[in-house]
Amino acid sequence: MPVDIKNVLVCDAVDESCIELLKQNGIKVDYKLKLSKEQLCAEVKNYDGLVVRSDTKITAEVLEAGAGHVKVVGRAGAGVDNIDIAAATKHNVIVLNTPGGNSISACELTCFLIGSLARPFVPAGKSMKDGKWDRKLYSGSELYGKTLAILGLGRIGREVGIRMNAFGMKVIGFDPITTAEEAKATGIKKLELDEIWPLADYITVHTPLIPATRNLISTETLGKCKKGVKVINVARGGIINEADLLVALQSGQCGGAAIDVYEQEPPTADVTKQLIQHPAVVATPHLGASTGEAQVRVAVEVAEQFVALTGKSKEYTKYDGVINRDVLKKY
Questions:
Q1: Structure pTM?
Q2: In this structure, are residues 206 and 157 in contact, taking their beta carbons and an 8 Å threshold?
Q3: Is 121:256 a contact under the CB 8 Å cutoff?
Q4: Tens-digit pLDDT profile for residues 253-305
Q5: How far is CA 150 from CA 5, 169, 267, 269, 286, in A?
Q6: Which residues are catalytic?
Q7: What are phi and psi of 239, to 5 degrees?
């Protein structure tokens, strides 16, 4: 099958290990960050492959400019919502990602954020720095015995379930693909969405952003939940409707939210800014994969898949992250 990859353009900041591994396997690498759309369209015809993270958007226009030249686009991360899959497939461009590279980091941040909603140590710490001693103001609640709903039982969702079971939470979840048996193996009881809403004390989302999951958490679904339900999003902005969440926080229907991802990043919309400033919200700047370990892992994994596609090294033979697998057959 081998794909002829001689020149790769790295468009976003990745760990040096990605570049070194590509070079070790005879692939020339250029590193050009923060290219405008026009600059990227002018550059892509010079490369067989592109490596991106979340900053660079590989649009239909970019892929059209690289038609006949670009053979593969690799995302050093889990999602591919910044890559036009349909346009890539049309131009026989292989799209791949590193679905497992940042799973543990995203999982751990999720667990910490769940804890921050139960025990408000973030504002308590700020209060201490301001010279105050507000013990009663920042009393919280236990996680033990509470029900955690995990929407999306892929790698990250299942890892969250394993850890929060250890806190004594009742863990339920939904996923259209994961079977009840697979969920049960990690201590999660699989239910349908309509069964989940009224049971959850906490809801965490771990799905891709696709039409079926956009605005999954909204006025309608929050209205089916217990008053005071808490929500967490370390997945993708847009899964939770930010305007609806703000209204629910203001009314008390939602008792707290921990948000790491936003519909627009960095946030500029007024509703997003109000959400971030709400006293019941813990907001972080898209830190899910921002650990040293995850950065190295995704960088190495995307490079390994590029090398595997070339067939140059028997050491690297896996390309589990290929999204549009039918394109592989054309090489």
A1: 0.86
A2: yes
A3: no
A4: 999 999 999 999 999 999 999 999 999 999 999 999 889 999 999 999 999 99
A5: 40, 12, 25, 28, 19
A6: 236, 265, 286
A7: -70, -35
